[in-house]
Automatic annotation (TrEMBL), chain A:
It comes from Pedobacter petrophilus. It comes from the Bacteria. This is Uncharacterized protein.
From TrEMBL, chain B:
One of its GO terms (cellular component) is cytoplasm. The gene is gwsG. One of its GO terms (molecular function) is ribosomal S6-glutamic acid ligase activity. Gene3D superfamilies: ATP-grasp fold, B domain. One of its GO terms (biological process) is SOS response. InterPro entries: GRASP_w_spasm (IPR026455). This is Grasp-with-spasm system ATP-grasp peptide maturase. Transmembrane segments: none annotated.
Amino acid sequence: MERKAKDVIIKEENKLPLTFEYMEFFGSKRSDNLDSGSSPYLKCKKYQTEFHNRQVLYKAMTRML
Amino acid sequence: MILIISKNNEITTTEVIKWLIVMNKKFIRVHEDEVFEINTLKKRILLKSYRNQFFIDEISAVWYRRGGIVFKTLNYQNQAIDRYMFEVQHWLIDYVIKSLEGKRHINKQSNSHLNKLLVLEKAKQIGLDVPPYFLAEDMEDVIIDQTIVKPITGTPIVDHIQENQNGIMYTSVIEQKKESSFFISFFQEKIEKDFEIRSFYLNGKVYSTAIISQNDEKTKIDHRRYNSKIPNRNVRYKLPAEIEHKIDLLMQSLDLNSGSVDFIKSADKFYFLEINAIGQFLGMSEACNYDLEREIAAYL
């Protein structure tokens, strides 16, 4: 069991499903702050979203063939 | 006008919208934080949020992708009036939601979150092979290295379980017995797989991808433990007609016209695992050139 999973489980009074003992942890280092210069997102009126991906996506080989 | 019920940060929605724009189809995208008021104007029902407003009669099609349409409800001081008005507002909201779901649609807000346990039972009834499973609070019936445990929730992710950390529960093989009991958990027989199959179902048509995950120790049990350095090979696959027909029956019995259906192929058997009505499909669409985003836009 990952140590973080143990830390989480121990604090709970009630039992948890066994799946919690196999839980893995991940975190995002990317900023969701849209005003941050390092945010990968742009506000986009055309697509009606504030999370339009700033990165230029490559075209997969299969799409080019 | 197409109504898209989605989330603000949802790339799949954006990819479908790109095709709607190419096809000159007008749309409204609703985010998860919008709360709608129901008003009337010249005998028409008007829905209004902080960023959108539309008449329900101007909506021609609805795509339920994520999130949900949420409505503002008013409370009253007098308890009897409050109870009465709760019912009035309930029926208005019910009318609006059912009116929208009665239009041409891809999935519905009211039934896109599935009970995995009931879906497994239905799959068995329809005649799909399902790995034997059981619920238990202890490991008495668990066979080491031959039993897996997995969540019964729609998503395996627990957001913000700790500061700056999310948790994820992959399918895991039980390698060691545990003496103490736990909350009811879902166990299933581990199937030795040739490969996994993810099928995307849309209005009777099935688009399948074989995910060659078993050769990589990291992805062997759960292909979602992605190996970004050596990704699993994903190739187009055609399920036998009989299996596609059973998928069609299963989806119709659940009143779904879209969703991802997961299988394991083992020798000559196709074991049904689960359905995700609102799962991701961009990856397989791109890998296999299925253009599912265009198919969805064309249908709406």
